[in-house]
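Q: I have two molecules that I believe assemble together. Could you output structure tokens for the complex as a whole instead of separate predictions?
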Amino acid sequence: MIALTQVGGNLLTNGLLVAVVALAHVQIAAFLIGASTLMIVSESVSLARRDRDPRHDRLAHGLIKSSLFVFSFGAALAIFFVLFVLSGVWGRFFVDLSRITFWSFFLEAITFFGEVVLIYTLYANWDRLDNHRLGRIGLLVLLNIMQFLQFFWIDVVASYMLTPNGGELNFLNQVLNPTNLPLSLHRVVGNVAWAGAAVALVAGFRYLRATRRLERTSRLSGGAPALSVGAMAAGNAGAEPPEAAQARYWDWAGQWGAIWAIGLSLLQPFLGYSYAKEIQLHAYPSWYSMMFGDLSNVFLVQITLLGLIFVAGALYFWRRMKEAGAQHHRLQGIVAIGLILVTAFAALPAWFAPTYADAVAAAGNKPFWEGGLLNPFAYFIPYKVGALFALMTLGLWSLTSYLRAYSRGQLRPGLVGRRTQFTLLTLGVAVSVMMMVMGVIREHARQPYLINGELTINQQQITNNSASPVGGTSR
Amino acid sequence: MKASERNRTRVGRPVQRRLKATYSWFDERTGATELLHKGLYEAVPSRGSWAYTLGSATLVLILLQVFTGIFLLLDFTPSVESDWNSLDYLRTSDPFGNWVRGLHLWGAYTLILVIGLHMMRTFLSASYKRPRELNWISGAVLFFLVLGLAITGAMLPWDQAGYWTTVVVTNIVHYFPLIGDGLRQLWRGGDFVGPLTLTRTFAIHVWVLPFLLLTFIGAHIYLLRRHGEFGAWINYDTVSDNPDREIGERVRHAEPPYPTRRIERRYAAPRKTDDFFPNQLFKDTVVSLGLVLIIFVMGLLSGAPLDAPADSATLSYVPTPEWFFLPLDQFLVLTPHNPLIAVGVFLIVGGGALAMLLLPFLDRSRDRRPTRRPEVLVPVMLVVFIVIFMAVLGVNRLYSLSP
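A: Yes, here they are, computed for all two components at once.
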């Protein structure tokens, strides 16, 4: 008989392994889902326009190509994740979880068949479907539905792990889990925002590469180095080099991605707040940990990253509007400064000391204006809620102001300096890091449990102890 | 001709003559023919005409509410002692009682949905711009009045749901800055919900709000006939190489009520119009009848619920709002227990309602295509998304496990 033995490695290395693989897995999955939504939008816009707008068609085609490569790599990673990491390292937990949430896993697995068929069909027949655009959109809609169902079912599992609400629930109660719907909607919006940010990130790189080549070509031919593609194109009217057309396209694609990333990120504070509220109502210790405990500092990083997204967006819009001499570009700059100030305010820590004990030892539980180390302006309610509201309002003004200028023909793709593209790179990186930090917060919020209040991480032992606030400061 | 037919004609002719003479007498005094002609043969933009049926459908549904409301009044007794019993009698002893209540309930649900769609259509087509600003404002007031009727209607059955809805709703008004406490006391007729609250809510539901509703409907229809249906931007696109000349021709040959006065020349007259009768009237009838049919079926199948009689001493009852107030209710759930935030939320909701009312003066853009009006389109879409999201969350909360 084979003896039962403990799995090798320790909690730290095993936890780290799960974290790294799971975060990569989530980034890939989120991109795939968001990208297929953007493809539908691009294809629909292209179909609706009289000139069929080849830029949208090219973007959608590019997205299906990248989706295929990302999907293939992601599938391999997912197999590694399930087979070696979850089954190998956290076997007992995974078996228990699979047993409890069997139907969710089963329904999720079924959607993969549909996804595989649809992604490969679209990739292989994209050009053939040129004359059947409605059919192509129909397939994309099916792909989107398939992917939505996929992450909905896995969200049922994820929300069950955070708010199991009293142990082994039946399938219906797992679906109706109070945190399931807020999490799913938070992710629907987040996925598309991430895909938009990824498009902006790639487009920023490609723009920089195209303009670098263009400048090199220009220097070799003895021409003066140009600051922008627009200036170059204007100087060489009628004989535009291919790199200029490339740069113009990537500039447009970067802008398109940024608009989606910023526009949908505007909803996220509200959706996130709603999600946090449900966690507060149904898993108070986890919420406490995020807002006041060990994770509160990580949460500050999260709020800072959210602010950074809006700041990067506003700076990008401001520079583009300024370069084109669009209306309200000065106000856009002021809004960017406002966003920086609000972000700084939102990122204020509750204590001007590393720990609560330090704070008490140094100055007691007093606000800083009484000589203490306590900062009441960092309280989540009402000050941080107010800061989030301000971020949303300023971000909304920034976006609509830019779209207003765009719709009135005050901006043209291509007329942009290289430095402007760095704001897109910042935006893309910030969204990516933010997703990872959010994952870390959500997973750690139920520590030391894998299934909140039910199954501990330590040796995966099942306990009957009720949950209690986890570490950190208290107020 | 057979003898019997000859006899019929002989009898028929004087009757027809007399009827004609009676109508002439009536027409001479009222101008009914002219009015009817004007009403039926006015031009409406031909493209997108199915979307214009939502306004008339709203009117039909309001009339349905009035009729079913009158029938309910025949049995309903608005007093704390006999309110619930009268509704219970309707449900159990009156052969059509539960059906009529169902019609009233489902009519209200459908009305709110249709009026919302009508407003969304008007917003997307920018029909609220000059000179139709007052059309929008009167329409927005009608929307608020319908919501007011819906919520006061939900309070009237003195069952558990009605009673606790009354407690919650009358409590919300106290968040109104400065005069909130006074308003709550005025509505409740004291500090607590009681007989006076029911009487006052009944008066508001049956007299005050319907009077205002019918007044504003009159104003809304008058303004619609004055300026004509705007339709949407697609009706004003030019197709020739000489747009100015095409628009000039269009304005010169426009049928009443076009060309619209005090508007940009290109939006003064649509490219192609149809007579209201029979084209538009047919579509209006199809949509309205379809909706009424759905309401009849729903009323018949599900009727209207009636909880246990109101009991102010109960502690276990969890009040659930009507679906159309779920977003607002969810907003209150999300609101932290902090007076500053509570007032802030009230101001946000009140400010949003005010912004909706004053939309024609906030949107100063000249273009009417939605894509050319991102400064209003994006914020409104954001708000619509949040409202839908909160409604979904509210439903989820009702059906998910209680904390």
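A: One point stands out. Chain A touches chain B at residues 165, 173, 176-178, 180-182, 185, 263, 266-267, 270-271, 273-274, 277, 281-282, 381-382, 385, 396, 399-401, 403-404, 406-408 (CB under 8 Å).
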